[in-house]
């Protein structure tokens, strides 16, 4: 039987194996070769091919365990080490490819244009530019989970028994089957719902349940959640945004005032000594007059209204 020959290929494989184990950086050219191997190996990865590969490997090793009559122990020892080296390569590459094929998450990146991704459960994701989606090899499991950095639009395949969860940076969105958009602009996080229902959760706030044409946002502030919807203005006939709920949980009074001014144009003058006071408030009143009254009650102050957008809190 023909004996296996070693040359540059053997050295190259050992080099890659050593890099993989030690964690040293692999060159771009080496990565290209590995990627080529991965693509070629995955094209026809079935039981028949795997069995055939095993037979070829064993056949190639056979010559190392047979020796001519009269051979001595040095010959056996030499060939034993060669066989061990080949096995090391095989086991190393098997571990490497097993990890990549069966365990390493699938990572999708949209650089300059939208990237459409169809997941195994039938869900479709439109990944927006400069965004990344990570999907574990176990997907879809009992709970369908993906990780998102950046922005994406999801059209989730319906399932009453397998929730779909999008884990983003500091919050998550849970659905059974719907169409929604997740946006992340620095500290500001937003979820817009087009169809179905979703539940949005973030640390320090209660879960927010959205129905179509509603959106959730943290307004760029931790422990904060706001839900807004659209309604048609009676005079102009145009759709306008209407605040439905606004909650703060253990947030400084100063931060709340900044959020109200920046996002809703509400100005509230208040004593400086309460600026750093942490408060919890649920602003669900039908008007800003009621909401400011609620803030005044929480802080033990009186409220005086200057105009439609300016209030004064005083002792």
Features:
315 residues, alpha+beta, 9-stranded antiparallel β-sheet, 7-stranded mixed β-sheet, 33% helix, 32% strand, disordered N terminus
Query: How many beta strands in the DSSP annotation?
Result: 19
Number of helices: 6
- Described by the principal axes of the CA atoms, the overall outline is elongated
DSSP helix fraction:
25-40%
Average pLDDT rating: 80
Strand order of the largest sheet: 2-3-6-9-10-13-14-15-17
N→C terminal distance: 99 Å
Q: What is Rg?
A: 31 Å
**Major sheet attributes:** 9 strands, antiparallel
Give the DSSP E fraction (strand runs of 2 or more residues): 25-35%
Sequence of secondary-structure elements: HHHHEEEEEEEEEEEEEEEHEEHEE
Structural commentary:
- With 315 residues, the chain is α+β, with helices and mostly antiparallel strands.
- Helices cover 33% and strands 32% of the residues.
- The protein is built from 6 helices and 19 strands.
- The protein has helices spanning 8-22, 28-43, 47-65, 73-103, 253-264, 288-299, and strands at 106-110, 115-118, 124-127, 131-135, 144-149, 152-155, 164-167, 172-175, 179-185, 188-195, 198-201, 208-210, 214-217, 224-232, 239-252, 267-269, 278-282, 302-305, 310-314.
- The strands form 3 sheets. A 9-stranded antiparallel β-sheet has the order 2-3-6-9-10-13-14-15-17. Strands 1-4-5-7-8-11-12 form a 7-stranded mixed β-sheet, with no helix packed on it. It has a 3-stranded mixed β-sheet with strand order 16-19-18.
- The longest helix is centred in the N-terminal third of the chain and has 31 residues, at 73-103.
- It is elongated.
- It starts with 7 loop residues before the first helix and ends with a strand.
- The model is unreliable at 1-7 and 96-102 (pLDDT under 50).
